[in-house]
Amino acid sequence: MSELKTCFKKVDYDLSGLLHYIDIGDIGLPDIQRPFVWSNTKVRDLFDSMYRGFPVGYLLFWENAAANGTKKIGLEPKPHPVPARLIVDGQQRLTSLYAVFRGKKVLDSDYRERQIEVAFRPRDGQFEVADAAIRRDPEWIANISSIWASGKPGFLMVKAFLKQLEAKRALTEEDEEQIARNLDRLFDLDKYPFTALEIASMVDEEQVADIFVRINSEGVRLNQADFILTLMSVFWDEGRAALEEFCRLARKVPDKNALPGPFNWFIQPDPGQMLRVAVVFGFKRARLKSVYQILRGKDLETEEFSDERRDAQFKVLREAQAEVLNLTRWHQFLSCLTGAGFRSAEMISSRTTLLYAYAFYLLGRKRFGVPEHRLQKLIGRWFFAASLTERYTGSPETVMDSDLKRLGEARCSDSFAAILEEMMASQLTGDFWTVTLPAYLDTSSARNPGLFAYVAAQNLLGAPVLFSHKKIADLLDPAMKPVKKALERHHLFPRGWLERQGVADLKKINQVANFALLEWPDNIGIRDASPAEYVPKVEKWFSSSEWLRMHELHALPMGWQEMPYEVFLIERRKLMAAIIRRGFELFRQVTT
Description:
Number of helices: 28
Number of domains: 3
Helix content: 40-55%
């Protein structure tokens, strides 16, 4: 058995040294986890703890094996082009300290810039988050960043503060001494000691992630996308910035006069998700671990690193990302989902499925030249099928790698489409539609992909709202902002009535097959009446042909209101599966 060796060393710093190393580029501050998520209150507490001499935890660094590169971190030049160490744990603390000591803005979880303003009251050494009252009060230094940003000697700043305060109230000699002592203690925070554990460069990213999880009390997991994003910060920071800007704008509903942007009603992606699409499209790989190694310039056979190989692979990533972030491509793809009957994020059960479908859209368009009119229907069908079967729920990277291998056999637009159709057909067999799917709909889960596929199929078939002349698709329009939701899920056999019949199990009452989309005034009006009571009243509002069509598109067996509840559920699941199949097959002929 080989001897186990410690894979880290302990290094002591003071805060001014840490900030200096960040300034010169020796420590890579770009976040390995996520945008800055600490509140200003938490930053205030950090400064308060340091001021009182309390410990605030150690830092975890990872020595950078690629420190001989030629790229820089960030937009401004650094004396050290590539950091010697990257931050694994302590990024939030260091970002807080760097932002306050250097007066820098931070990027929050919604990709908006914000200034951290921590106030300090020298009279009693109290820290607080700055507000309007504090900014007006001469007792406070409203933003302690001004202390270090001014570059003035401490004694001059003490004199200036005392003079400003004396203009408002009289100060005793004891007051002046106390204020001076507290301000000196604040100035000395740049001498605060930190201990860092530095992981050796030969430790791979998977082990680093494992170390992080084991020691991090918050249990935030690092993933392969986090490591690639950090690598981008080192070797292609503009690319990472473009990902973050795209994701920031995707969260913002544009103004009427704004330029087109990535906002949509289906997904508000994060940089790691869009990166996955670029990796699939550019490298034809789903496993990010191998792509991370490639981007570092590693030859997977010889395990040797090369700057030339790294630069070549980043060129591939740059070209792929340009396509992924292209707004025309993005919105054309999203229109595939609308064309498949899906209307908003409320109908998306798997964002991974959506993102992989986007990668397939780009492959079909750019690599195989599938005509747009044909590609729209093909990718819409693919998303419908992959969502319905939960294709990427278990081991998404493994399944996607297998799918990419199959598509690697394609040589033209026809073979690309044929392979996708074959993969769909292999899962959507006759037994799937008549046996598997009805059983799958035996659930009370409101997030069931089968339920979303059923509503999508109703949209494709132009189904009216139950007991209404309006169409479901129109009332599901996410751009509508009514005071109350236009459609509600209505119990066909009301809960109160079922409970009076002795059905108490909520899983039975809330079965997917017991729900239909109804306009909310009608839902309120029906209340707890039995179907046998309210259905004959409603039937009078419609012609016989309208009534028959409504029953057909809502998967309701004729006379259902008189059926025993259990029999109704079984029969309706079969009809719902049939509606889903009709919707899916509606435009098959266009894609073959």
